[in-house]
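so my prof wants the structure for this chain in the tokens format not the other one, which i didnt know existed until like an hour ago. anyway here's the sequence
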Amino acid sequence: MPPLPSVRKRLREGLADPFGCAPLSVQVRDKQSAMVVVADYTRNNAYDKWLPELLYQLNDCGIPDSAIQLYIGSGTHRPMSEDEKRACYTDEVWKRVEILDHDCDATDRMKKIGRTDYGTVIYVDQRIWDSEFLILTGGIMYHYFAGYSGGRKALMPGCCARETIIHNHSLAINKKTGGFDPRVKPGALVGNPVNEDMLQVASQIRPDMCVNVVLNSDKEISWLGVGDQGYKLRRGAAFLDESNLVEVAEPADIAIVGAGGQPKDLTLFQAHKSLRHSLAALKPGAKVFWLARAEHGEGTDEFQTWRQLSLDECQARVQREISLYAFCALSLKTITDQFDVHLISDLPAERVREWGMTPHQDIHRALSQELPANASGLRWAVIPDCSNLLPTKPKPPAEDGENKE
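here's what i got, hopefully its the right format
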């Protein structure tokens, strides 16, 4: 995906002629303030290339920096340090506007605004609900149970209470089997209950505008869209699919899978998406060399409580206890039960083994020690960054008489 020649120019064009809503200048004509929801340290959205320009455009429409707030839609993630904020949103933005932190456990700050058809009770930060003009921002990437990030995900889970987030995420699980609902997978929006529930949350909060980006493997912006959050998500997802949805004619016996580097592999929890995305490229029992540094460890203390459980024990626990970390743990245990996974990381070897993987610290040594004698005659898949690339099985051929279009 080639980079945009001028990101700021594309943003100005999008704000002047957005898709599915009125131009920025029209929408804020009678507004005195604005709230901009931004992603946290776990996402790279190249904010340095366009977030300052978004503030300038709000200024030009009559809203000064003193009336603009950035809201970090961090969901259940930890709060960011001041240094992290300056690095993520630029020193310029940090100095210009007030930056608000989200706390999913601040129940006194949460407002109940309704319920979805899926039974999710919607509690959202009162400051988001009271905002005069609400802009969502973020990046569109594949997500292992929401289908894609971007759009509505800035609000749910970004700005909601823990109770709301847990119930939404629980829709990913088949309660009878303790496994994942087959409708829930990366690259799936239509019919995906997690995504549809998120959309219902967003429709009740009613954001005014959305700015989403798609980054290429060099972390450059290849696509930037402005408009209604639902429309822009679908358009950005279609753009991503054109380059990053890859049909695999024959799955591999051996794979080298990269997690994409910082910040995508800061923890095992964050890096896991890249491993899950690779599944369609793998034969059952394939040997997978997974590079995920995890310099900040596995993740939260709660996530680590799943490490020593077997797959059966994970499935049984999910059926009686839903938590935000159950989904990743269940996914990891399922994958390591089906494939021979070798993890190249900074994690302690014993912890890696408890997750069901073989530990290594160096990819070259791992290959020299673990490759079978006939490796050169086997089929390989080498995916340097599978965090935002989605292998998929070929579509079945159309039968005679069926419309092949």
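also thought this was worth mentioning. Residues 229-244 form the longest helix (16 residues).
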